[in-house]
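Dear colleague,

Following up on Tuesday's group meeting, I ran the structure prediction for the two-component complex that the binding team flagged. I've pasted the input sequences exactly as they went in, so you can double-check that nothing got truncated or mislabelled along the way. The C-alpha cells for the whole assembly follow below. Feel free to forward this to whoever is handling the docking comparison.

Inputs:
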Amino acid sequence: MNREILVCCDTGCLVNGAQAVLDELRHDAIGMDVSIKPYVKNVGCNGLCEKGPIVTILPDNITYYKVKPSDAADILESLGNKAVDRLLYKDKEGTPVLSRKDHPFYATQHKIALRNTGIIDPGSIEDFLSRGGYEGLKKALTMTQDQVIAEVEKSGLRGRGGGGFPTGKKWRSCQQVSSDQKYMLCNGDEGDPGAFMDRSLMEGDPHSVLEGLIIGAFAIGASKGILYIRDEYDLALRDVQKAIDEARKMGYLGENILNSGFNFDCEIVRGGGAFVCGESSALMSSIEGKVGEPRVKYIRSVEKGLFEKPTVLNNVETLANIPYILLHGGDEYAKLGTEGSKGTKVFSLVGKVERTGLVEVPMGVTLRELVFDIGGGIAGGGRFKAVQTGGPSGGCIPESLMDLKIDFDSLKESGSMMGSGGIIVMDEATCMVDLARYYVKFLSGESCGKCTPCREGLRCMLEILTRICEGKGTLRDLDLLEELAYTATQASLCELGKTAANPVLSTLKYFRDEYEEHINNKHCPAGACKELITFRILPEKCKGCGICAKACPAQCIDGVLKSPYEIRALDCIKCGTCKEKCPFDAIVTE
Amino acid sequence: MMLLLHNIGMKEVVVLANENNVKHENTRDIKDILKNYSHEQRHSLAILQEVQKEYSYISPDHLQTISYYLRVPVAEIFSIATFYKALSLDKKGKIIIKVCDGTACHIRGSETVLNECKRALNIDVGETTPDGLFSLEVVNCVGSCAIAPVMVCDNEFHGKLQSGQVAPIITQAKEEAEVHE
C-alpha cells in the first residue's frame, strides 16, 4: 500500500525545524522496503503552527506534532504498524489521539478556503489537479459571465479582506461597465499585525487563489491581472510565481485559455511595506508606481480604478473561495454561516491562547467556542481578559460579550470589526491602555499623511496615551482622547483614518477603569507599563540560587548564594528577564 | 532642465549618472537592473526595491538615474523612496535584524527581544553598527504570529524567543559573517 508522508513546511514549521525533518524522512525513505513505498512531500500550513513541525501520514490519517529529525526512522518504521505514541497529541486523560478529526483544534473546523492547504504540495500543479484543481475554472468557462456572477451572488460571499462588500455585487457592477481594458487584482498585502491567513493560503495553495483570480477575470471581462503581495512574504512570493509559471505552461493562463477564446494573464507586484497600501485606491496607486495614498472615491474603482480603467480588487481568501463556489454551487456555500454573512471564515488565533494557529470555521460560531474550545483557553493558566479583532482598525471585546456570534455585522455592533480575521487573545497580564497605545503608535506610523485629523490627531492621541502609561495623565486627557477620536473618525478620507480610533474608543468603553487606575493611582493593574512597575524579590520565596543575578543584563541583582537576593531598583531596566528565569516565582512586579 | 535631459539619448544619461557613482564591489551596475524594465512609471517601486537589495540603500545618484530612465521627476521618485518602509536612503548593514512587533509578538514580549537586540548590538532602532555589519529594525508583522515573539536575522526566522536567546543568535550571525569574509 502506498503511503504519503506530509511534512508541513510553512514558515511557522520551518522555524521549528521542518526542513531537517523533511530531508531526514526523504533520505531514510530511499532505503525502504519496496512494498511500503512512502512518498514524502512538503505541504503548506496545517494551522497549528505552534506544535510544529507537523507530519501527517495518509491514508492512515495519523498526525504527529513537534517532530524532530531523529524521529524520522521511527515514523518510517511505524508505517502500517502501531503509530509512534510519543509524537501524538494526548487528550486530557492522556490518551493518544491518532486522527486530526479527533483533535479539539481541528474537530469543529470546516475547511473551504483552506481545503487544500496542508494537503497538497504547493509547488506541484499535478497535486493540485488531483484534488479537483482548475475544475471550477473549467466549469466557469462553459458558462456565461452572467451565470458565473449569479452563482457568486447566490453564495452570499462577502469580501474577506475586512470591508465585507458582497463579491458578486462588485463583479456585477464592473462587468456592466464597458471598456477596452479591465483589470482583476488580488490583494495579498496582508498588513494587519496578528493576521497571517493570506500568507498561509498563498504559501500552501497558491493555485486556488490563482484559479479564483482567473474566474473573476472571466466574469468581469478582464484580460490583465495583478497580484499585489507584501515584500516581506518571501516564500509566498516564490510559491505564487511558480504557480503562475506552471499554470501558464499548462494553458490555464495566457491566450485562449482551455480553448475557450478567453485571454488572461497576470503578474506579481511586490508591495513596499506600507500598511495603507491594503486600502484599495492606495494599492492601485502603488501599482501605478506612485506613492500609495488613498484617493476620494466619488468614482468607484469598478468604473475607474487602476490606470483609470474598470478594476476589481479581491482579497486572497475571497478568491480562494471562488473555485469551490463555482464547482459546488452558490447555494451549497450559502448553507453555512449566518443570515448576513455566508460561508466560512479563516481566523488567525494568536496571543495568549493555548493553541495558536489558523482556523477555518463557519460564520456564526461564538468567540467563546473559538477561544476556549478550539484554542484551548488561556496559555499558562492565566485569566482571560479580552479579545482583539479586526487588526488596528478593530476593537477589544470583553468577556461579557464572549457569546457573540461572529459575523460581519455583529462584530461591528460591538464596536469592533471583522477585519481580515485576526483574533488576538489577551489575559490579565495585558494592559489595555498599553494595547491602545500600541495600535495608535502603529497607525500613526502608517498614516500616509494626507489628512490632518489622521496624521496629527493620531500623533496627539499617542502623546496622551504615552502620558497615561507613564502615570502622568489626567482625567481631562480621557475627554481629549474621545474628542480627537471623534474628529479622526469623521474627517479622515480613507478607512485607515476613519477606523483608527477604534482601539482607543473600544478600550475606553469596556476598560475605562484601567485608564482611571493609571491616572488616579499611578498603577498599572496588568503590570505591563514599565514606568509604573518595580520588580521585587520576595525574600520568603527566594532560595538564593543566583540564577536571576547571572541572567540580569543590567547586573543590578546583588546577594550571596543560599540567602535571599535583592534588586537595586535604581539600576533596574525592568526588562523582566529575572522574573522569567526565576524557578521559584519569587520575583513579583508591583 | 528635465526636458533637456530627456532629449539626450538614454544611454548617455545612464553613463553620465554612473560617473558620479561610487563603484561598489560585487554589485551589479544599476544599468543591469534598469535594462529589465521598460520606461514606465509603474516599474518605479520594483526598480527601487531591486536597487535597495543590491546596494542596501538608494543614493541620490540612483534617484537621478531612475528618474531619467522612467521620465518621472526626481521629486516623485524621492517621495516613493521615502514613503515605503522597504526602501532606505541610508546605507543598511549587511545583516538586517528585524524584530517583529505585531500584536501577537507585542503582547508576548517583543519589547524584551528588542531591548536585548539593542544591548547586544549597542545601537538603537533604525541604526547600523559602526562596522556596517548589522542594522536593527522593528517590523509590524512577519505573519508568524503563532510562534511569537519572532525576530528575523539575515532572513532566518527565530520564534518563541525567551530572554537570553537573542544575544547568541547575533553572535552566531557575526561569526558566520566573519567566516565568509
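Chain B has two domains: 2-83, 95-180.

Cheers,
M.
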